[in-house]
Amino acid sequence: MANKRYTDAATALEGVLFDGMTICAGGFGLCGIPERLIDAIEASGVKDLTIASNNAGIDGQGLGKLLRSRQVKKMISSYVGENKEFERQYLSGELEVEFCPQGTLAERCRAGGAGIPGFYTKTGVGTQVAEGKETKVFDGQEYILERGIRADLAIIKGWKADESGNLIFRKTARNFNQPMATAGKICVAEVEEIVPVGSLDPDAIHLPGIYVKRMIVGAPYDKQIEFRTVRERVSA
Fold first, then answer.
1. Domain of residue 23, residue span
2. Does 234 reside within a domain?
3. Number of DSSP helices (H) and strands (E) in the chain, helices first
4. Using the 8-state DSSP alphabet, how is residue 51 labeled?
5. What's the CA gap between 18 and 209, in Å, rounded?
6. Domain of 59: which CATH number?
7. Do residues 47 and 23 make contact, with C-beta atoms less than 8 angstroms apart?
8. Is 198 exposed, middle or buried (0-12, 13-18, 19+ CB in 10 A)?
9. Could you tell me which of 187, 104, 103, 182 has the C-alpha nearest to residue 147?
10. CA distance 102 to 159
11. What is the mean pLDDT of residues 142-161?
12. What is the largest CA-CA distance in the chain?
């Protein structure tokens, strides 16, 4: 069994990064994002990136760091509303954005990972999403053709992995991590813990180790909160 464990994010990404590459990044907002790997990409200085991700984090956090450093040429995303720098760069023409409905984005990555080059969906019919795309009628209903996404690299965040790369996500942190992992030619995962082979229940595995080429332990983490919602304490 090949050793998939690397000492740190920079080492795990060595020989993988290059200018103009496409990256699939897991996470949703600040939940389940590969923080250490994003930091290493920023430190590497690689540029002209195309990144497929549900969003780009928030200003100065998550993928927002790569926007701040101007390393991203294009985002393929479904939601951009919480990142002012994302909005500014897009409106000023500094950043190319391909808007993609959330479910369609997940399916495009899943399809790419499954070797499916394209699929038809009703989502986006009659909107700007459909502009320039092939359409087809099935049973009297119009559908648009969406292409599967294949990336040079997938970066994901998991909870536990064994030494062969079999991986478990924690609750909602699974989000986009699972389909993104399969869409990359190389998948690098950061996890909170790596355990010996045989320690994990086979029925609990969310991502088989065949997809994971390299991994690191990123813990400990400081939990970043995207929206802090509080109420006044009521005195007894």
1. 9-118+132-217
2. no
3. 6, 13
4. E
5. 25
6. 3.40.1080.10
7. no
8. exposed
9. 104
10. 23
11. 98
12. 64
8 A C-beta contact, residue 182 and residue 156 = no
Could you report the per-residue pLDDT of 160-170, keeping only the tens digit for each? 999 999 999 99
Is there a domain that residue 16 lies in? yes
Residue 18 belongs to a domain: yes
Fill in the amino acid letter for 54.
N
Q: Say what the pLDDT of residue 125 is.
A: 96
Mean pLDDT of the region 188-213: 97
Predicted confidence at residue 236, as pLDDT, reads: 67
Question: Which tens digits make up the pLDDT trace of 206-223?
Answer: 999 999 999 999 998 887
pLDDT at position 227 over 80: no
**Two structure tokens written together for 184:** 């990359």
Counting the structural domains of the chain, the total is: 1
The conformation of residue 190, written as its DSSP 8-state character, comes to: E
Q: 3-state secondary structure string, 82-129?
A: CCHHHHHHHHCCCCEEEECCHHHHHHHHHHHHCCCCEEEECCCCCCHH
pTM of the shown model: 0.92
Q: How confident is the model at residue 21 (pLDDT cuts 50, 70, 90)?
A: very high
pLDDT in tens, 97-129: 999 999 999 999 999 999 999 999 999 999 999
Rounded to whole angstroms, how far apart are CA atoms 115 and 50? 20
47 vs 20, 23, 32, 132, 176, CA distance in Å?
6, 12, 24, 28, 23
